[in-house]
Every structure is written in structure tokens, then in C-alpha cells.
């Protein structure tokens, strides 16, 4: 990409001279135009979102008004003056920003007292921060569980709150984004009770319709600044498809070399050449694997080089994360295999290359990760290494889907009753909930409050609802959607805590017999105690990795919208999904060859969520030449491929969604394919699929038809998480089935009009959340 031209502008006149001096001391004589415009809006009291490219100086755009305001209040009678709050999606980003703020504000003296307040903050520091810090950097989790429930102790900070900075705001999507939207509404409510009305300053390098998304997140009108005037070095972007091997996988399908192995080779080569690089990996285990493989190969070249590569992921202990961050900043580390914990804005300037092992799920994440290289303005390299997956294969053969398309719209639904209900409880526990508060939380409150009262969670007294329990109401809402207490991973021989795994992922990642990686060491899980949330592991060196298998059934609870697709139907509504992890595969390292399968005995889990589904009739099957023998395989193949392609059309990952295909479903009485959100109450992904169904399923059909394999492979219709061992699958049948289905598909504008009309007829109003009781 060629460098972008920009022009300088002058600082807004109202910015304090001390701030201008600090900016100039940092080597910045004038702001770029977008920085100056954003600062002007903020100083005028308007909430603003800065949506410009990676390393375009967004932090300066919000720091200048924040620091200027903190200086203006430095001599306030209460000794504290104005305050500001910074929210980051990860602890690492907040810590990194705090370091940058302290360096930047050093010429301003002690007027700026910045401090990180999160789960890693020592208890003896917390009281000082509450009383004296005027710039607090934290994350939505700590705001939700720590600050808002304890608002009386934060009263002096909240009554003086002038700015709330929300960095990397595009990450607040799906269920997580919906929870954060309600946390921000609770914050606004408490600030109003203390007499404050803070301005919200949002930043993102990759957001579609940024003002709309920011407004949905904050519940406020937001001004958009999106004209990027910063310079940029050239970025060379390579699409890399691993070669086919001589091995064969399930059902004899050809097997490509894994993206993990290719990325490890690339990271090794770049390290040997002294190129500072990060390899982004989609999973914690993948980050550990790439680190281990690269270290082994580097030790064959030069033992000292092996120490200059490491892994970085969530689940590490705080001291481990901080040590890795320091080593990366100092240049002690040349190569790092990381999950998206390092994707989000951390200043790792000086990187020359980024290797992306597998499409990260959205174009927004892809450009965030690629933008980590070249942050000092120099040219850089980004390589996307495709996994053996329908979406990755489609993208490397259709680069226009990456380079000619804007980033995805941010999908979130603050009115999701499974999200809203626990936040109403939390808000009532913070301050009794009045009728005047309900507009802030949205129209769904009216239906939810009687349910919460019937469940004896809230009680109406005079004009307000009160929290009735002794427990902490904030504990009802798990804003990351982890689904319960994290599972502790403990080494059997020593009793040492290695780290944690989210409860929702524990059945599939730390089941008995699973291979668990931590800091380059390999462990085998000996037992998983679900009652005590503990997985016991011991160090081992098996020549394989493990992948869990599950089974899923689905029932329709309510059909919200139904429109004709020729003889078939396209539907959207509420479903109940029952899922159970039943076994795991052992796969040979590097090649991915399946070595065997072991049964598991784990309890089923039930999920009420939202889904899109389509049906076909006997006449359509006849036209598609689909007989009963291949019907199950054709539906199953179409389901797998459609799940693989949906991330192109909604801000989701294939692991955020699930699917079921049934030749005769008991609720529809027809052959049916379901695709559902993998979160309670839904996350907006299935709804997005419903509204883009024609384009989505057309791309699905093309991805299957254009694959060079004979009978199906991981690049088109085989799924890495299929509970049925990718059996049955029928590639040609899926192509014919989708062809006939799409013949009857209306144009998307026509379909949208039909959907709106059907919704009004069915419900008497616009589509709303499920009526299923969402009581926590």
C-alpha cells in the first residue's frame, strides 16, 4: 500500500500551553488534521469517535483534551480536580497506555496522576488510586465488578469525571459488546446521580459506520472523525497457502501442511535474519505450539536464538505477562507467537513483520494484526497463512474479499434480555432503580422488571425497584460470556497453579486426556473436576495434540420471521440447543494426521439462543437430484461450509456460532439447516446472517464448487469441530442443493422488506428479543 499523504494543522487555541509544550517535547510540532478536529469536538463537550488507521496517533487525539482538562482542575479546592477514566479491552493495553501517559505527561509535573486499576493491582495501591489518581486506566470487567458496585468509595472520582476514553472500541461486539454497553449505561447513571456528565472519547483503527457503532455502545450521539491524515509506510501483504502433503485425513481427504507449522517456519526464518516479528495465532494452544517448534528449530541454528522467541497468551499469571511485555519492548525478544491479546494497540513499534496463522475471523482483526508491523513509519511485511478451512481457502483464492471490502459492521444488542436482566439487577443494587432510569437502559426493561420481581431478585417499593439478595448483584453478569467460574489448571506433583481456562471452554480443552500447553511446556490432563473447577495436569511429551468432538441437537422455541425462498423458507427466531462433548481425537503434530479417538463422559449443556434456518421441499430435492441416501450428507456439507463463510458477513468467528442439519426436523417437518449464535440470548450473528442470506449462501456455494478436491476436504466442507467425525458429507449434493435453494431467493432489499412486513404482522412491531424468560 502506498504511503498516505497528510497535512498538518494547528492545535486548538484553548489547549493549555503546558500540553502543547509536552506534545512538542515528545517530538510532535503540530497535530495531524484528524487529531486537531477530534480535540476540538471533545473540548466542545461532544462525544467523538476517532476511526483512523493503526499508528495514526489516535491516542494523542484523546490525550490532549484529557490532559488539558486535568491541568485546568489541578488546583481545585477538593485537591483532586477533574478526573478521566480510560477503558481497554485487555489488561496489557491498559498497562501499556499507562506507561505511555506517564512518559508523555512527565513535563507536566505531578498534575497528572495516572494509575492502572485492575485485577492485578495490589490491594495497598487501590485506596491511593481511589483517593488521589485523576486518570484511572482499567477494563470493563473491573468497572463492572469493582468500581460501579463500590461507587460510594469512588464518589469524589465520579463527581469530577469529565472524560471516558474507550480504546479499541470495535472489540466490543457480540455478547461482550452488549454487556459493555449496559456497563456504560450504569456508569452514566451513577455519574448523573453525582452531578457529572462525562464526554465519551472512542478510538478504533477498524470500524465500519463508527459513529453508529459508538452510539449503540454508549447510548449517546457521537461525532465521527475518520479522515486519516497520518503518513504510512508501505505494507507488503502476502497470502500464503500451505502445500498439500502425501497424507490423508478423514474419509481419505487430502491434508495440507498446517498453518501452525508454516507459521513456525516463517517465524524461525525471520528470527534467524534478525527481523523483529510477531506471529498471531487464533488459539492459546496454537501460540504455544508455534513457540515450541520455532525454539526447537532455532536451537539447531544457534542456541542463543532460541531464547529470543516466546509465546504470549491469556491465562498466564500477571508477572509472566509483564515480563514478556518488557522483553518485547526492550528488543530482548525478536519473535513472539501471540494470541489477539497483542492485537489491540499495544505499542510494539519497530516490528518489521507480522505472520497471521489463520484468518482471525474478521477483516477488522486482520487489519489490526497486520498494522502491528511498520508502526514507526517504515515499510513492513504481513503474511496471512491459510488454514485448511473453507473461509481461509476462499480468501486466498478471492483476495478481493479482503482488499476490496470494508471492515464488518459491529454487531451488538444491548436489549438482549439475557444481557439486560442481570445489569438491571446490578443497577438496582448500586442505587434503587426508578422509572426515570428506564429510558437509559432501553425499551426491553418494561417486560423484564416483572419477571425479575417474580423471581424475587427485585422488589418494587414506592417508586423504585430494590435488589433483595445478600449476594453481589454484579456477579450475575459474566460480561466475557465465559459461563461460570474459570477452571484452575494445577500441576499434580507440585500443586502449582499454571493458569486458568474459561468455564465454557473447559469441556473441550482440559477434559481428561487433553494435551495442555503452557509457556512452551506440554502437559497431559489427568482429571477434570467440574464441581471444584480444577483440572489436574502433569508434564509430558506426547507426539500428538488433541481436539474435542461434540454432538448437538436443536429445537425451535419461537419463529420471529419467516419468508419464502421459492418453495423453501428462510426463518429467524429463538431455539434451544443441547450440546455434549463426547470424545476427542489425537492428531499427530505438524501433519495433523488422526491417530485415534477416545470417548468421554461429560454432562450435556443447554443453550437458549437465536438462529437462522432454511428448509427445502420434496420438489426442490427432486430438482437438485438429491435422493434420501445423500440428503443427510448434502445438508451436512452445506451447514459446515455456511458456518465457515459467515464470518465474512458478520463480526464473528466460526467458533462463535454453531450449526445443525437434519433430514427431517421434528419442528419444521422438512429437511432443515440451522446456524445459531453460541451465546445465551444470541449475539446478533444469526440475525446478520438472516439479512444477508442470499449473498452469504451464494459465497458458500461458490466456495464448495471451486474447491479442487473430489469428495470434500477441510478447505471446503469438513469442519474441525464436527461432532460426527465429518460423516456423512456429500460435496456435489451440497452444491446442487444450494443452487436450487438460491434460485428462489429474493433480492436482499426485497427480502428485507418482506422480513419487516412479516415481523410487523407476527408481533405488531419491529423485531425484538426473545420472550424466553431471561431471569439469571
TrEMBL record:
Coiled coil: none annotated. Gene3D superfamilies: P-loop containing nucleotide triphosphate hydrolases (3.40.50.300). NCBIfam families: DECH_helic. This is DEAD/DEAH box helicase. Residues 266-418 form the Helicase C-terminal domain. Residues 745-776 are annotated as: Disordered. Signal peptide: none annotated. The keyword Cell wall biogenesis/degradation does not apply.
Amino acid at each position: 500500500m502506498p504511503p498516505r499523504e497528510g497535512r498538518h494543522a494547528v492545535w486548538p487555541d484553548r489547549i493549555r500551553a503546558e500540553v502543547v509544550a509536552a506534545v512538542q517535547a515528545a517530538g510532535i510540532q503540530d497535530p495531524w488534521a484528524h487529531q486537531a478536529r477530534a480535540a476540538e469536538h471533545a473540548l466542545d463537550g461532544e462525544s467523538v469517535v476517532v476511526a483512523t488507521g493503526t499508528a495514526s496517533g489516535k491516542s494523542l487525539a484523546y490525550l490532549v483534551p484529557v490532559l488539558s482538562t486535568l491541568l485546568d482542575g489541578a488546583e481545585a479546592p477538593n485537591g483532586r480536580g477533574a478526573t478521566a477514566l480510560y477503558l481497554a479491552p485487555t489488561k496489557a493495553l491498559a498497562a501499556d497506555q499507562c506507561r505511555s501517559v506517564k512518559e508523555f505527561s512527565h513535563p507536566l509535573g505531578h498534575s497528572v496522576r495516572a494509575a492502572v486499576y485492575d485485577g492485578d493491582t495490589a490491594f495497598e495501591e487501590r485506596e491511593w488510586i481511589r483517593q488521589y489518581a485523576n486518570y484511572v486506566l482499567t477494563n470493563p470487567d473491573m468497572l463492572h465488578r469493582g468500581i460501579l458496585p463500590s461507587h460510594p468509595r469512588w464518589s469524589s472520582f465520579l463527581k469530577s469525571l469529565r472524560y471516558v476514553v474507550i480504546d479499541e472500541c470495535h472489540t466490543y461486539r457480540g455478547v461482550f459488546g452488549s454487556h459493555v454497553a449496559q456497563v456504560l449505561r450504569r456508569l452514566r447513571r451513577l455519574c448523573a446521580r453525582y452531578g457529572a456528565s462525562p464526554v465519551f472519547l472512542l478510538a478504533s483503527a477498524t470500524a465500519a459506520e463508527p459513529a453508529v457503532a459508538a452510539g449503540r455502545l454508549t447510548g449517546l450521539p457521537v461525532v465521527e472523525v475518520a479522515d486519516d491524515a497520518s503518513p504510512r509506510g508501505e505494507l507488503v501483504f502476502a497470502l500464503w497457502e500451505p502445500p498439500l502433503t502425501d497424507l490423508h485425513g478423514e474419509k481419505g481427504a487430502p491434508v495440507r501442511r498446517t498453518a501452525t507449522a508454516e507459521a513456525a517456519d516463517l517465524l524461525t526464518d525471520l528470527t534467524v535474519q534478525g527481523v523483529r516479528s510477531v506471529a498471531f495465532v487464533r488459539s492459546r494452544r496454537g501460540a504455544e505450539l508455534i513457540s515450541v517448534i520455532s525454539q526447537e528449530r532455532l536451537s539447531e541454528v544457534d542456541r542463543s536464538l532460541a531464547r529470543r522467541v516466546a509465546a504470549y497468551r491469556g491465562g498466564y499469571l500477571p508477572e509472566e505477562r509483564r515480563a514478556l511485555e518488557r522483553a518485547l519492548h526492550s528488543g530482548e525478544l525478536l519473535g513472539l507467537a501471540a494470541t489477539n491479546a497483542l492485537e489491540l494497540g499495544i505499542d510494539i513499534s519497530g516490528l518489521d513483520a507480522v505472520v497471521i496463522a489463520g484468518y482471525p475471523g474478521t477483516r477488522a482483526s486482520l487489519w489490526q494484526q497486520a498494522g502491528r508491523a511498520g508502526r514507526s513509519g517504515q515499510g513492513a511485511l504481513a503474511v496471512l497463512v491459510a488454514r485448511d478451512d473453507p473461509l481461509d481457502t476462499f480468501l486466498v483464492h478471492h483476495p478481493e474479499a479482503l482488499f476490496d471490502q470494508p471492515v464488518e459492521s459491529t454487531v451488538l444488542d444491548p436489549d438482549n434480555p439475557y444481557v439486560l436482566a442481570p445489569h438491571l439487577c446490578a443497577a438496582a443494587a448500586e442505587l434503587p432503580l426508578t422509572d426515570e432510569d428506564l429510558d437509559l437502559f432501553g425499551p426491553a426493561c418494561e417486560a423484564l422488571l416483572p419477571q425479575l420481581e417474580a423471581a424475587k431478585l427485585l422488589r418494587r417499593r414506592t417508586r423504585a425497584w430494590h435488589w433483595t439478595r445478600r449476594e453481589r448483584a454484579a456477579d450475575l453478569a459474566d460480561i466475557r460470556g465465559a459461563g461460570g467460574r474459570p477452571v484452575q489448571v494445577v500441576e499434580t506433583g507440585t500443586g502449582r497453579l499454571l493458569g486458568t481456562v474459561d468455564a465454557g471452554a473447559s469441556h473441550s480443552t482440559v477434559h481428561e486426556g487433553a494435551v495442555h500447553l503452557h509457556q512452551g511446556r506440554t502437559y497431559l490432563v489427568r482429571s477434570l473436576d467440574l464441581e471444584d473447577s480444577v483440572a489436574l495436569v502433569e508434564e509430558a511429551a506426547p507426539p500428538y495434540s488433541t481436539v474435542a468432538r461434540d454432538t448437538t441437537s436443536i429445537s425451535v422455541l419461537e419463529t420471529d420471521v419467516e419468508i419464502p425462498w421459492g418453495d423453501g423458507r428462510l426463518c429467524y427466531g429463538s431455539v434451544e440447543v443441547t450440546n455434549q462433548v463426547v470424545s476427542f481425537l489425537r492428531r499427530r503434530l505438524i501433519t495433523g494426521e488422526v491417530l485415534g479417538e477416545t470417548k468421554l463422559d461429560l454432562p450435556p449443556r443447554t443453550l437458549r439462543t437465536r438462529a437462522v434456518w432454511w428448509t427445502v421441499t420434496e420438489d426442490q430435492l427432486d430438482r437438485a437430484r438429491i435422493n434420501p441416501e445423500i440428503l443427510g450428507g448434502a445438508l451436512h456439507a452445506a451447514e459446515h461450509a455456511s458456518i465457515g463463510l459467515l464470518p465474512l458477513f458478520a463480526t464473528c468467528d466460526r467458533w462463535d456460532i454453531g450449526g445443525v442439519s437434519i433430514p427431517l426436523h421434528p419442528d419444521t417437518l422438512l429437511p432443515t439447516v440451522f446456524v445459531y449464535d453460541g451465546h445465551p440470548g444470541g449475539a446478533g450473528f444469526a440475525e446478520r446472517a438472516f439479512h444477508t442470506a442470499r449473498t452469504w449462501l451464494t459465497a458458500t456455494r461458490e466456495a464448495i464448487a471451486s474447491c479442487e478436491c473430489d469428495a470434500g476436504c477441510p478447505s471446503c466442507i469438513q469442519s474441525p469441530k464436527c461432532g460426527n467425525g465429518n460423516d456423512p458429507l456429500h460435496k456435489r449434493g451440497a452444491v446442487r442443493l444450494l443452487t436450487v435453494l438460491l434460485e428462489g431467493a429474493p433480492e436482499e432489499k426485497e427480502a428485507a422488506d418482506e422480513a419487516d412486513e412479516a415481523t410487523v404482522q407476527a408481533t405488531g412491531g419491529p423485531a425484538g428479543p426473545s420472550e424466553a424468560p431471561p431471569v439469571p
